[in-house]
Amino acid sequence: MSHGNDNRQATALLFLHAQTSLHPGSGTALGVVDLPIQRERHTQWPLVPGSFIKGVLRDTCGRRNSDREQLFAAFGPETAEADKHAGAISVTDARILAFPVRSLRGVFCWTTCISVLERFNRDAALAQWPQVKLPVRPAKEQAVCASNSPLLVDGNRVVLEEFEFERAAELNGLSDQLAQRIFLAGDVATPEAFRQRLVVLHDDDFTHFVRHATEIVARLGLNSETKTVKQGALFYQEFLPSETILYAVVFANASRREGKAAQAAGMLEYLRGQLPKVLQIGGDETTGKGLCAVRLCDGKEGA
User: Which end of the chain is more exposed for a tag (fewer CB within 10 A), N or C?
Assistant: First the structure.
């Protein structure tokens, strides 16, 4: 397990790989989309709030383990006793790492950009991850991808949605480094597809896709008598598409709960031991939305 400079703190990365559409909602809006997803103010890149993730983790650990003292040490006591101590586990917002986009060849690809990867390296350093090697920075309307990618048209072009990109360079091992650690052990097909379908774009091109290539779904309610839409029951909801990959940094401190001594590494191991392979995050749980494959990784696994 990774430790920071303070040996009382342990850190790891939590990867979220969306298996179904994901709605980390931001409430109502004044635009065309009534229920948009949450986005960073300065980049407009999607995110999943840390409070969402921590709440799901707490609920999951509580249902999978009857040791309430351990649960309270990790995530804090019930609301009525919230003033007694804080939980040992902290979770950041989940940031975008790779965003799926429709492709003319090869069905779809995972897109990212150098700014996303630079920030990932900075965040990963908190968990003492080895830095991923960045490829050359592509210009606008250029793409960095594998030379044997199934996405290529005529050998040197990639067509994503209605936009054409010229292949500029190789990934230089980037897709291998990420694939080894993001995906669940035992999943052979997805890492291999990721290696072939990862595309690094210019920052502006990537930002266009994460702003305009999300799923917009019309939702409505019918009047049971007339079979027409109820007044005010038609609305539009935004989702992150399945295959979206996000990550969060998880920090663990030593237990602060009286009578429940546990070091930081022990708190993180408790979380790892209770973490299932799939979590449901965000809204519309009863319609199968928000199913995410999850992996808590310290950077050494799969190296």
Answer: C
What residues does each domain of the chain span? Answer: 2-297
Burial classification of residue 172, based on how many CB atoms lie within 10 Å of its CB (0-12 exposed, 13-18 middle, 19 or more buried): middle
Split at pLDDT 50, 70, 90, the class of 1 is very low
**Residue 144 Cα distances to 151, 168, 284, angstroms:** 11, 5, 36
Strand partners, 295: 15
* Count of CB atoms situated within 10 Å of the CB of 69: 13
DSSP for 175-242 reads: HHHHHHHHSPTT--HHHHHHHHHEEEE-HHHHHHHHHHSSEEEEE--B-TTT-SBPTT--EEEEEBPT
pTM for the full predicted model:
0.92
Neighbour-count burial of 22, counting CB atoms closer than 10 A to its CB (0-12 exposed, 13-18 middle, 19+ buried):
buried
- Reported as a single tens digit per residue, the pLDDT across 201-215 is 999 999 999 999 999
Asked if 16 contacts 292 with a C-beta cutoff of 8 angstroms, the reply is yes
